[in-house]
Amino acid sequence: MTDYVDGYCERVAPGLWGEPLNSLGNLAFLVAAVLVWRLAAGGRAGRLLAALIGLVFAASTVFHLLATRWAGVADSVSILVFVLVYVVLFARVFYGRRLSWLAAPAFLVLTAVTALLGGGLYLSALIAFGVVVALLVFSRDDDWTHFAVAGAIFALSLSLRTLDRDVCDYVPAGTHFLWHLLNGVVLYLVSRTLVLRRTTQ
């Protein structure tokens, strides 16, 4: 039984550089991590988010270089950890400590439900964007526009991720690398919004 994963248009054989665009596309996460780190200016929440974005960069790069199952698990876990930490920090910054402990369990339940319906982590993240925007609009918080923009970009990136295997005959490189590039933007935008909000409180 092989541990090799061939899940993307760009990869046609084992090897470190079987997915050059997918691997290099992860640099978007590294750029986002550096920008958030500098923006945080010593703030613990911002530095934590920057470090977690850096972890996503490392895990995803290893996965697309090695194309093994364990690396794929590490990639997914790094993303899940970022999301769980982010929803807790979001709840704490926007709604106070009293409700923040509910954020991670609520997201895990949402992810479990979407998984049962054939979705999973990324679908639950997209739904979470909608919930966040609705809550902020309801409370007349101007930051809803930032999350709406980030959510729209994420919806586009998720569509490109989904289309990757369907366009191999027309686009040999696939579209997965665009998922990386756009998600680097998404993680920067949501982290920036949280860091700036925290500094004004």
Structure notes:
There is one protein chain. The chain has nine helices and no strands. Helix 2 runs antiparallel to helix 3, helix 3 packs antiparallel against helix 4 and helix 7 packs antiparallel against helix 8. With 201 residues, it is mostly helical.
List the helices and strands and how they pair.
Layout: H1 20-25, H2 27-40, H3 44-66, H4 69-95, H5 97-100, H6 103-116, H7 121-138, H8 144-163, H9 176-199
Helix fraction bin: over 70%
Structural class: mainly alpha
- Taken from the alpha-carbon principal axes, the silhouette is globular
Low-confidence stretches: none
Give the integer mean of the pLDDT values.
94
Say how many strands there are: 0
In sequence order, what are the helices and strands, one letter per element? HHHHHHHHH
Q: How large is the count of helical segments?
A: 9
Q: What is the rounded Rg?
A: 17 Å
How large is the share of residues in beta strands? under 5%
Gap between N and C termini, in Å? 54 Å
Main pleated sheet: none
List keywords for this structure.
201 residues; mainly alpha; 0% strand; globular
